[in-house]
Amino acid sequence: MSTTSGTPSGPQAAEKETPARRPSEYSLLESLPVEVAGGITFTVRSVPAADPSAPVVLILPAMVMKAKHYMHLAKALNAQGVSVALCDLRGQGESTPALLDQPNFGYREMIEIDLPAVTAAVRERFPDSELHLFGHSLGGQLSLLYAAANPGAVESVTVIGTGTVYWRAFGIRRWFEALRDIQWIGLVARVKGHWPGGVLIPGAMAGRVMVDWSRHSLTSHYRPTGTSRDYDRLLAEMTTRVLAISLADDHLGPKSNVDFLESKMKAAAVSRWHIDGDSPVTHRDHFEWVKDSPVIARVATDWIRTGVATPAS
Fold first, then answer.
1. C-alpha closest to that of 286 among 254, 244, 242
2. Which of 38, 58, 201, 240 is the most exposed place for a label (fewest CB within 10 A)?
3. CA distance 214 to 219
4. Residue 48 lies in a domain
5. Is residue 10 domain-resident?
6. Are 90 and 110 in contact (CB under 8 A)?
7. Domain span holding position 52
8. pLDDT tens string 224-246
């Protein structure tokens, strides 16, 4: 003898039982579309301060990292009274087309095409604000090179986990490792036209980005494919002030590499903050530092306003 109940079963039941996914906090932020040549689009997300004339900080992500990963940092900066903008790099996160659905690109496209358009959009949204860049790892390199090539475009640049990947800047015990791994990535990127992910860089990256990156690692010079600019000279002449933050447990961007990159900025007023064991920042890895965003945001915003970096204690 069989019985039936009033409870639906099968696909219809699954449909009814699946709760609607709530939109993420990041996706609810104010958004501004930006398009550049070739139909490449970006979405600039912003967290405005109560004061429309407060400084605005544009956060630029690391390789393969999505801008939404920095939401905790954005909220911490905003809590210090500044406006914040976030944007994915080309081929990452909300930018379209997807990485493998667009022509190959490298540092030149990101510095000379993408960043001028993104910063112009941020300035249009916050017309009464000074613009400051905050870059993590690759985002920091791009920020510095953009500022060097465009004097006066931004008021300052803060970088974290951003060092040269020049092989001799690593400690002597890591010279072979740096040469082997980074040049292997560059070779694969040349052959395949992109880096599929794996050694050091877990996610996919555009081929020319990794070729430019590996060439810099071999020579110490910034020579993006297709550029007419001498970025090493521009970095040496740059006068935009810089706050360079390094982390004691950062295997990918150790202090020696940050120091080497700092040495290229001969004319800039560079403030250094090395986060070590005496700091209240307890997450000192290349990525985990985001968990201590309130501490980092306080130091960074104090420096933005005063030009003086007072490490937290």
1. 254
2. 38
3. 9
4. yes
5. no
6. yes
7. 24-176+230-306
8. 999 999 999 999 999 999 999 99
